[in-house]
Fold this protein.
Amino acid sequence: MTCMCRRHALMLIGCAAALPLAGCVEPETGPVDIAWDRDSCELCRMLISDPKFAAQVRGGPSHKIHKFDDIGCAITWLNDKPWAGDPNTEIWVAEQNSTRASMHWLDARKVRFMAGAMTPMNYGFAAVAGDAAAALTFEQVADRVLKGGPNHICHTPVGQAAG
């Protein structure tokens, strides 16, 4: 009988030790929480601090999450990946009214964007929920970002020293 109680006690201790780790397991789909002022943008390496313009891309061979401080950084970074056009690649963007306490993640391919916003990397696009007049589609935003080339804040062209 004593042996049985010890086994149960050891099992309970093992389960209790595993509980904190269970919270660290990343979901297989969708966006994840941002560690504000600690997570950095995958492209420009700036700390992600403004919840109104954060973005995330989930994709590639391991379907890993990548975090960004601006949808322009996400588009620029993703454009160089061989899996960019894969329909399983997820692109999430924060709705422009998001706060750190209340994030509203939207599927970037299905929402509209307003131009002219003051965004962290100056790409200037804010995601809006609903069908806003004069708003741009994701394809239009991606086209504008890629035609403009990497933002001067994020990228130093090959052969030029950072100033």
In short: The chain is about 25% helix and 15% strand. The chain has a mean pLDDT of 84.
